[in-house]
Amino acid sequence: MLDLDMSPYGAFIWPAWGISAVVLAALSARALIAARRWKRELARLEAARK
């Protein structure tokens, strides 16, 4: 069974997990936004080329 009680270390471990999750989510969102921007730019450049 999964034991999530970390006794005296929980005060340090859970915030570290939370911060890591927030940072990973922000990096993923940033990459997704950039990919969409690059896709729009590529479509604009291809349209201008024709």
UniProtKB/TrEMBL annotation:
Q: Which domain of life is it from?
A: Bacteria
Membrane-protein topology: Single-pass membrane protein
Alphabetized InterPro entries for the sequence: Haem_export_protD_CcmD
Q: Provide the protein's localization.
A: Cell inner membrane
Ordered alphabetically, the record's keywords are: Cell inner membrane, Cell membrane, Cytochrome c-type biogenesis, Membrane, Transmembrane, Transmembrane helix, Transport
Question: Example GO biological process term?
Answer: heme transport
Record's GO cellular component terms: plasma membrane
Give the main localization category.
Answer: membrane
Transmembrane stretches, start-end:
12-33
The record's function comment reads: Required for the export of heme to the periplasm for the biogenesis of c-type cytochromes.
Q: Which family does it belong to?
A: Belongs to the CcmD/CycX/HelD family.
Put simply, this protein is called Heme exporter protein D
